[in-house]
Amino acid sequence: MTDFDKELENEDQDDELFEHHRIVVDTKQNLLRIDKFLMDRLPNVTRNKIQSGIKDGFVKVNDQDVKPNYKVRPKDEIIISFPEPPRDTEVIPENISLDIVFEDEYLLVVNKPAGMVVHPAYQNWTGTLVNALTYHFKNLPEMKGNEGRPGLVHRIDKDTSGLLVIAKTEDVINGLAKQFFDHSIERTYYALVWGEPNPSDGTINVNLGRSLKDRRVTTAFPDGDFGRTAITHYKTIQNLRYISLIQCNLETGRTHQIRAHMKYIGHPLFNDATYGGDQVLKGTQFSKYKAFVENCFKLIPRQALHAKSLGFIHPITKEKIQFDSELPEDFVAVLEKWENYVQYN
Q1: Of the residues 3, 56, 76, 157, which is catalytic?
Q2: Which CATH superfamily includes the segment(s) 100-181?
């Protein structure tokens, strides 16, 4: 994974971009598409990643946004910036307890609590899952171009709870990475959303990308003119009048995919402040009901999203292995509160 893959994970970050590369084009440079030009200047970066970075606004030429087909000219000044400031990749080991669901000599599966950032990043250099991993496990492998994130093959948002697989060896990290690339990993999430989706079961196949107005937010591009392919399958498990418990299965793994897709179809996640779910979106105008919802927000002060199950082929034993987790206490408490509300009101 390269800098172009390093998406924002902490919703509390500001919208500032930090310069990572500044390139002044040689006076003898022939006209050349900027994506091809940067392939020769940036190590370990594919053309697709460069094109995505340009579309996301991370690349400017002479202080102007450009398209991937822009042809660089002599003396052009190209600046590549990212939401995170440059830093070294040293990770400070920290004695933070881990909820380990499974472990063998090749990999482990952990249940991440809500509120824990997965890897060090701007404003969150310590207290992350990676800080804990480097304390408890030595010499975890790193994917090429993904320095500073030992063991990681995927991630989930800071305020999303649930399962993550961690690689212990080079062969395993490469094997798991290929399964994620091939979309053969089975990932099931549970979420509470506002309203009752119609149809109750369905597939959302809509491009997602950085909002053109706020880089901290992922937005849908239904015309396919921006963003990347994103596919979410969902089905309703339980209707609770004004909210619903749904199951989501991911084919792709875009930043904030479930959160952005559910907002797009009009059903933001319950108490998801970034995507408008922290308001009373369905229900009555009675003050008693509004107070009830506010109390629910206090019980689960985050988006109601949990990475519940994870299935994949063990890269070494070649066995299909599947892991499941219980819903966390805050999720269960809110679910039970809504069940009681529907039953007695």
Answers
A1: 157
A2: Pseudouridine synthase (3.30.2350.10)
